[in-house]
Amino acid sequence: MISKWRRIPFIRWSFLRLMFGIKNLNKEWQVGDGREARLADYVIAHAESGNPVDVIKKIDEYAYNESFLINVGDEKGVILDSAIARINPQCILELGTYCGYSALRMAIAAPSAEIVSIEFNATNAEIARRILEHAGIGERIKIVVGTLGDGGKTITSLNNEYNFAASKVDLAFIDHAKEVYLSDLQLILQQQWLRSGALVVADNIKFPGAPEYHAYMKENEGIHWRTTEHETYVEYQSVIKDLVLVSEYMG
Questions:
Q1: Is-contact 128 121, C-beta < 8 A?
Q2: Which residue stretches of the chain are H helix?
Q3: Closest CA to 133 of 62, 40, 18
Q4: pTM (2 decimals)?
């Protein structure tokens, strides 16, 4: 059981250190104190090799007891699990690998799915690969270093090397730079990757916030999308409120 004090972020130095490092976080997607690399070492030292469920448990343990992390977390992760159970996806696109936590959750929830995860930071990508290899599912998750908005390089790679095509993607999970949630979704739509009935799950809509994306989903409700808003809290605490959107693409 997690102590109630672990759920109050403002009394945790690792959370305050994250706030002090927000400039670096927004630029490099690392806090700047080495916590992401230490996470990989912690997982390899403490989690059972080849056991993805235990790896998830140890990542959550590290985030509560060692250093605060910015992955989707255990409580919001259940929303992601439920979305996957709803449609049993065979192809998943993730924007924002970070340290591999959400990709790992999705691989457990959808054991037959092909998962392609896009990560801006090459160091994060390598950390995630270490963790996923230790969990025994490294072959199932393809991590691509890049961004959808890099002038076509990553999109071309997805199309040519990973066989992305019209109606290929069953579920997309968006959890990267909040200011490009909407523009990256529009790039996905331009490529026609989403099949009718596909789900797009978007984290951190309230905090740090993706207001343009949120407004777009409201404006298109019942036209191109059907969205459910899940009121929740920012990962690994119970003070700062958040929203997760699960949006069904109507085509």
A1: no
A2: 13-20, 22-28, 35-46, 52-65, 73-87, 101-109, 122-135, 153-161, 181-191, 211-219
A3: 40
A4: 0.91
Backbone angles phi, psi at 234, to 5 degrees: -55, 145
The residue from 75, 119, 170, 175 that is catalytic is: 175
* Tally of residues, the chain: 251
For the ranges 16-30, 53-67, 80-94, 150-164, the lowest mean pLDDT is seen at 16-30
Strands 241-249 and 194-202: antiparallel
Among the options 75, 94, 170, 235, which is catalytic?
235
Domain boundaries 71-249, corresponding CATH code: 3.40.50.150
Closest-CA residue to 94 (of 70, 58, 63, 120): 120
Residue 235 falls in the annotated catalytic set: yes
Q: pLDDT tens, 210-245?
A: 999 999 999 999 999 999 999 999 999 888 999 999
75 in catalytic set = no
Catalytic pick among 204, 206, 242, 248: 204
- Examine the residue annotation and report whether 76 is marked as an active-site residue of this protein: no
DSSP string, 145-180: ES-TTSTTHHHHHHHHHS---TT-EEEEEE-S-GGG
Of the listed 203, 206, 242, 248, which one is catalytic?
203
Cα–Cα distance for residue pair 76/243, rounded to 1 Å: 9
What are the residue ranges spanned by the domains of the chain?
71-249
Q: Is 241 considered catalytic here?
A: no
Q: How many CB atoms lie within 10 A of CB 85?
A: 11
Torsion over CA: 133, 134, 136, 140 (sign) = negative
CA distances from 133 to 74, 112, 215 (A): 21, 17, 39
Active site residue 178: yes
